[in-house]
Amino acid sequence: MGVDFVFRIAGIGVIITVIAQLLTRAGRDDIAMLATLSGLVVVLMMVVNMISDFFSSVRSLFSL
């Protein structure tokens, strides 16, 4: 779960960076910013989901 998660985030980062660079070179700076923000939102949702699973595991471990 740990290494796979890090590679997923890195892959999303690389893809979003390439897309943003292509859009910037094409003169579409506004769309490049939206692509970057959407990549950030996707990664944050993945992290929030993982943290939620962690807290659920802690709660069940301590029977809270």
Summarize, please.
This protein has 2 helices and no strands.
β content, as a range?
Answer: under 5%
Instruction: State the helix count.
Output: 2
Order of helices and strands: HH
Average pLDDT, to the nearest integer? 93
The helix content is over 70%
Number of strands: 0
Structural class call reads: mainly alpha
Supply Rg. 16 Å
Task: Please give a handful of descriptors for the protein shown.
single chain, 64 residues, mainly alpha, 89% helix, 0% strand
What would you note in describing this structure?
89% of the residues lie in helices and 0% in strands. By secondary structure, the protein is mainly α. α1 (2-25) packs antiparallel against α2 (29-61). The chain is elongated. 3% of the residues are buried. The model has no long low-confidence stretch (mean pLDDT 93).
Topology, pairings included?
Elements lengths: L1 H24 L3 H33 L3
Helix pairs in contact: 1-2
